[in-house]
Structure prediction request, 439 residues.
Amino acid sequence: MEKQKLFVFMIDALCEIDVHYMRTLPNFGWMLRGGALVREVYPVYPSFTYPCHTSIMTGCYPDKHGIPHNEMVKAGVYPVPWYTHRSLVKKKFFAEYAKERGYSTCLVNWPVSAGADVDINLPMCMPMHYKGDNPRQFFEGVSTDDALERYFWKYGYLLSGYNGLINGSLDMFTEAVAPDIIRDYGQPDVMFVKMCDLDTVRHKLGVESETAREQLAKHDAQLGVLMESIRRFGDFERTNFIVMGDHGQTDVPRSLNFNRVLQENGLQTVDEAGRLVSFDAFCHSTGGSGWIELRDPQDEALRSRVHAFLLSAKESGKYGLGYVFTKEEARERFHLTGPFDFIIEGETPMSFAYSLTAPLFTKTEPGDYKTAPGSHGGLPWLDHRTTFFACGPAFEPGAVIEKASLVDEAPTMARILGFDMEDIDGHCLDALLAAPYRR
Prediction:
């Protein structure tokens, strides 16, 4: 078979309900009319950006790839570092497999890819709330030197804090450098480009808003520029175009500060300034769920006491809890391990605050991404899931799969390029592929 090219356009917080509107847009619509579709793609647990992106890139669940959260949480410490570096991932990237097999590879704004072994890399590696004027410092040593030298002098200012943007600046930088990469490097064989702004809008305004539709239209236009770049400077006819999301989002009306519950029941102590003094149990937030960390995970008496307390809190109905999972249950049911001993979830969608001093319940409002009106990070089946569609010579026009998992995407892409990935959790979605690529 003729050597294939692969272009992946990632839209953070793309939901399965977006497909109907995307069909009306010129570039997404072109792909959907002539391509293949997975209507609902289930994220991994927690449905958080960094675990999901790592599962997409490795074909593995978090217990195998080692990225359970966006942040390296630690009781009483905030802010904490994020999982940005490739060395933290325990499994090989799909893009690294491709490079080993002679494909030129490129990642633009991909999470947990700092220092990844690809040909062109400008990773997602800036601290979330950076407002300074020297963003290049975060890219030094973890990006490819040639790409950094080619583009940062011209576009680095888009990442500087003085422009008044946070996630918006990431998309502005990405939409500036990605067409130049296609032109300057003659279209890498395998290219992943990630956009953030739909996620930002949905955190702020909820899942469905006119602003979200406007943002989808902007992403369509960005994809159009990249497609035209490939027409002009690459090989459009041999390119397989994929649009995917990492997780959906869910509307949440309120946030629960479970650390206040722990304080009120003698499991946590804070001082007058609101600083953590001591704890037997501490609640971290993944947005849609709460991770309970024990002071001493080896203390079986403490474990039993806290477990009984959590079950009692759930049964009381006072806090709106619907689920309590032990760490063993989390691994067995969701393939998740991490710095927690229990996980709690709402009976209906709600977010979990991480503050030590905020009220027990608060109405969600724009601000922190974990406690905003639109949230994720909870159970994979919550409204809404994400989606996946693709077109190109390797995909069967009109093929539809109703449901799949994020971990199935890497082995499907690997099949297109003619290789298999070792010791992964996902499987190839053969029904999406043209006959020569099926087994």
User: Anything to note?
Assistant: The chain has a mean pLDDT of 95.
